[in-house]
Amino acid sequence: MIERAAPHLLHLHGVGNTTAAQLLITAGGNPDRLRSEASFAALCGTAPVPASSGKTTRHRLSRGGDRRANNALHTIAMARLRNHPPTKAFVQRQRDRGRSTPEILRLLKRAIAREMFKQLTRPHEDLGVHDLRPTRQAKNITLAAAAHALGLATITISRTERGLHITPEVVNRYREWLNTA
Question: What Å distances lie between residue 61 and 88, 102, 103, 156, CA to CA?
Fold first, then answer.
């Protein structure tokens, strides 16, 4: 099911079948309803919560949100901490700034939530949507004509071309139709 819904998630470092499935479940059947990466982070329980007192300014992880999604992000973070050079460099920069391990983990999970939000709401390069609009325009086909031929809403075709609609079936069907049109 992951291969049909979001095969690009499995190509990301540290993301396996279980974590990808959990993130897809958390995002729901309509990831477009997530308005921002901050809303996704809050949904996953990785939004920062102020925990300051006196002159000390700090944040902690939210106790709310989907705990299973938070666990999936934690699993990805642990995998990246072990063998992902950019993550290791990030952790070293944070240690140099004097941050504690829990603070670094909170920052890392928030960064991963930001990345996952982008991957869940926009197609990955593997889907190759960058060529759809130029192909349609080269063949002098309007958005309305393409939408009518595929039985979809015009906005769906437009969002697919711009990389905002993540449905591999629509992308593949649209590409096949453009090749035969």
Answer: 21, 9, 9, 36
Burial degree of 98 (CB within 10 A; 0-12, 13-18, 19+): exposed
Instruction: Determine the Cα–Cα distance for residues 50 and 47; give it in Å rounded to an integer.
Output: 10
Q: CA 18 to CA 23: how far, in whole Å?
A: 9
Q: How many helices (H) and strands (E) does the chain have?
A: 10, 2
Q: Show the domain range for 53.
A: 2-121
Q: What is the pTM of this model?
A: 0.65
Render pLDDT for 97-108 as a digit per residue (tens, 0 to 9): 999 998 899 899
- Number of domains within the chain: 2
